[in-house]
Amino acid sequence: MPSKSPLSLLEAIQDYLKSVSLSRSENTARTYTNGMQALLNTYVSQGNDPETVPVSKINEDFITKFAADLKAYSPNTEQLYLTAATGFYEYLAAEKLADVNLPRLRMLIKRRARRAAQRLPQFPKEDIQKVITYAQSLTMAPVDNKRNRLQNLRDRAFVLTLADTGLRVHEACNLRRGDIDWQEGKAIIIGKGNQEAVVRFSTRALTALRDYINTRAEMDGAYGRSLSSLPLFARHDLGAGKRVEPISTTTGRNIIRARVVEALGKDAAGTITPHSFRHYFVTEVLQGSGGNIKLAQKLARHKNIQVTQRYAHLSDEELDKGYYDIFEN
Known about the structure:
This protein is mainly alpha-helical. Helices cover 56% and strands 4% of the residues.
């Protein structure tokens, strides 16, 4: 039998990205894919062919060339791509595909990588509030059929859930009906890093969810599965038919994009994303609690309180108001 050809660098990267997609969120998988494409670009620029060079030939020295090329990106992107590359080297070492000195790899990265900039979260708070108000009005919007009615009720509940819980988009899309304790107004979720966490729901979010669930009761009851196992936010497009299937994170983003355009106009497309509502949530907690950063950290489920502290900075408009209230009155 002919001997099997050694695994190429390109094939090893493809296998690595498959493992990432199975264990990480869609956003993380996309970032890692971009990072590994950047690594391949550097490799090719050195006159190498990743399709033919065996992965066993790669070592940690290559990371210095990659880090040098990443200087063309922002410090934050550089950090993300180096994290993806480090994960790839760890994968090679674990699978015994290459002889990699991981401590030396980390030392080389530490010497050459820039520190990621600490940027203040920026989001259009007033516009988000307008989108929330618009979403609440969807119950009165004229519709042609029950499917459109369900879409309106779902989207209203989705917007209010994001705004009042701080859930990440994939966490909201993965919710099941049985996850929510309706009496307590809480849900136990598996969040970032596969950590179990308790999320609290506001009265208006619970009311919107009940309106939506009650309206689709007939559809859920006829599906033949336990109600607790059904998705909280379901598809209502023609392709779903009578199936009760969860919305994807892509659908969740599209819901927000569409409702933002309806509420604010075409020029606002892309200015507010599902994650903008998480920024809004943290800021509302901080302002409503008199700046209680520990409370905001716990409710937002930030591991590092420094992440929460970034939200504690006042906006330019709030600084202006505070200044003129003091010196001009």
